[in-house]
Amino acid sequence: MLNRATLSALLLAALSLPAAANEGVIRKAFTERLPSVKIDEVRATPMPGLWELRMGNEIRYTDATGSFLIEGGELLDLKSRKNLTEERVAQLNRVDFASLPFKDAVVWKNGSGKRRIAVFADPNCGYCKRFEKGLQEMKDVTVYTFLIPILGGDSPEKSRGIVCAKDNAGAWLNWMLKGEAPPKSPVGCDDGVLERNLALSRKIHVNGTPAIVFEDGSRIPGAVGPVELEKRLQGLTVAPAAAKS
After folding, report:
1. Using one digit for the tens of pLDDT, what is the confidence trace for 138-191?
2. Which one is the CATH code of 4-92: 3.10.450.70, 3.30.70.20, 3.30.70.380, 3.40.630.30?
3. The domain 97-234: what is its CATH number?
4. Which of 148, 185, 189, 234: CA 20 to 30 A from 75?
5. Is the pTM of this model over 0.85?
6. How many helices (H) and strands (E) does the chain have?
């Protein structure tokens, strides 16, 4: 006679067979009909008959046979009033905050610095300047700014001058808050920091500035005011770590 553990294992295996079968059918259908599309993951959604397709960090939907494709749509749970597509994309975009290369960031803090955020910014970004001014109102924060010169013009020169300055935090704040031009610095003085920052931004899909990353891995793609930022900091689901410089 089969014991309870064996019966449970057999039941779980039986339940997983339809899902595995559907995944195989969907992958086969897309391979035949859209061979150029690389599907990284196929999984069922809470809506019966609707399947999620993940291509990198992008989400699409299909039916159980892979005959139809839904692009540009969002799946909403009307009962819970949740945007399931938005939640899924946020999950895929979550960043391992502790693994960020803080040595390549410009760092400054207010108060104890116990609450930490990372910001990807370009020195010629007007929204970044507005955000930086709002940051000065925040209490007990450490801000790690990863300079990514993506706006063209003299962004690379300004970024290099800030990164290479003896007091790079001072050079950054003087430029962003007071408009004091950073010192001129020779090409290469940053020891590859800007190239690494740009590579990092591509890796975690930062597509514009400012981009804000919190300690729980969540992010905001754009500038927010100090009131909204404070709400997000207070609502984090992880205990803030001790400040690091």
Report:
1. 999 999 999 999 998 999 999 999 999 999 999 999 999 999 999 999 888 999
2. 3.10.450.70
3. 3.40.30.10
4. 234
5. no
6. 7, 11
